[in-house]
Design brief:
Elements: H1 5-38, E1 60-64, E2 79-82, H2 84-94, H3 110-136, H4 141-146, E3 151-153, E4 168-170
Antiparallel strand pairs: 1-2, 3-4
């Protein structure tokens, strides 16, 4: 049987594939033996020392200055941190201080001024009333001070100094 030249190539490839399939376990064993001569296998376990890095201040990482695996020296800056709170504080410190605000008469409202004026008039009237009663002998120094709530007399006295009046004693407001 004669084969055409195109069919001869197909038969040759088929035989080479069969030969490769049959000899592949043998080729694998030979390759493994040659590889074991060149490479040494040994069971091992690697442990790398770990270093813990902590920032002294809280913040967010703004920029990493070293690459993984790169050698570093003691004191070398590794990352740049950004702390918005500290940035705001620095901005406040950098601003020139504002001049102090001096309160003027216009600073008080008309209502507050009127209320304070009424209190002043009322206190002056009360003082004049007590001075008149004391001059008339209707009140002693203890009774006049008692109206303010700080002194109390047990017995009426006509002395001008409360401390010398027997029965006068200091009491706190309730």
């Amino acid at each position: 049987m004669l084969y055409a030249p195109g069919k001869r190539l197909a038969f040759k490839l088929r035989w080479y594939l069969i030969l490769l399939a049959v000899t592949s376990p043998l080729l694998w064993l030979v390759g493994r033996a040659l590889l074991s001569v060149w490479l040494i296998e040994a069971p091992a376990q690697l442990q790398l020392t770990t270093s813990e890095l902590r920032a002294r201040e809280p913040g967010q990482v703004q920029q990493v200055l070293v690459r993984p695996g790169e050698r570093v020296t003691a004191g070398q800056v590794l990352v740049r941190l950004d702390n918005p709170e500290w940035r705001a504080r620095l901005a406040l410190l950098a601003e020139p201080p504002a001049p102090p605000v001096v309160p003027t008469d216009d600073a008080l409202g008309a209502r507050e001024r009127d209320a304070l004026q009424r209190l002043l008039v009322s206190a002056e009237q009360r003082l004049q009333q007590l001075a008149g009663l004391q001059a008339a002998g209707a009140a002693t120094c203890c009774s006049s001070s008692a109206s303010s709530g700080w002194w109390r007399c047990r017995t009426p006295a006509s002395s001008s100094a409360c401390s010398s009046v027997p029965g006068c004693r200091r009491v706190s407001r309730v």
